[in-house]
Amino acid sequence: MRYLYLDTSSSFLYAGTEMFNSHNLKPNDIDKILVVNGPGSFTGIRVGITIAKTYAWGLKKDITTVTSLEAMAISSNFKGYKVPLIDARRGYVYGAIFDEDNNEVFKACHISLEELKEDINKLDKDVVIITNDELDLEYNKEEYKPDILKIVEKYKDRENVNPHFVNPEYLKLTEAEEKNNKND
Fold it and tell me: Domain 69-142 adopts which CATH fold?
């Protein structure tokens, strides 16, 4: 089987004419699409999902989603807790905690960096922070380098989704939603 992996959450995009041409493939040669649905760059996630949905619907291909935090954790070979982080600005991050078998032990969320540090300090094993962002952290740090083969192997059998129901995973309310909640 041939898989198309689309990840625009961290400035990585593995798709397009150049990729197809370099492997002598046509879009219809793809059997299944794995798309990162966030969290990450608002525009990047929306663009990646739009491309994936268009391919899936137009070519009648299977599609499933993978979060950017899952992709970051599965790409690491660290033996211990893996904490993938994406800077959400203003002292907040998008983060989760995975064990060495890549099981989520702390649900993905939008959280203050200080609060997350408190949760990390409660862990009973070594920890690595996986990020490409400049964050003030005193833990071991690993750069995120997508291991596409590992990501595809882990998630290739994940249940398919109707392309019309593939949506971004933002984890954070918009500023307008936050202000509206404060007024309630």
Answer: Nucleotidyltransferase; domain 5 (3.30.420)
d(CA 88, CA 67): 15
- DSSP-assigned beta bridge partners for residue 86: 94
Quote the CA–CA distance of 153 and 155 in Å, as a whole number. 6
Number of neighbours of residue 37 by Cβ within 10 angstroms: 24
Phi/psi at 94 (5° precision): -95, 125
Task: Give domain 3-67+145-173's CATH number out of 3.20.20.10, 3.30.420.40, 3.40.718.10, 3.40.50.150.
Answer: 3.30.420.40
Give the C-alpha separation, 99 to 72, whole Å. Answer: 13
Global pTM exceeds 0.85:
yes
pLDDT tens per residue across all 184 residues of the chain: 878 777 765 444 444 567 777 888 888 898 999 999 999 888 888 988 998 999 999 999 999 999 999 999 999 999 999 999 999 999 999 999 999 999 999 999 999 999 999 999 999 999 999 999 999 889 999 999 999 999 999 999 999 999 999 999 888 876 777 778 877 7
C-alpha 3 chain-centroid distance: 17
Instruction: Please tell me whether residue 65 adopts helix, strand or coil conformation.
Output: strand
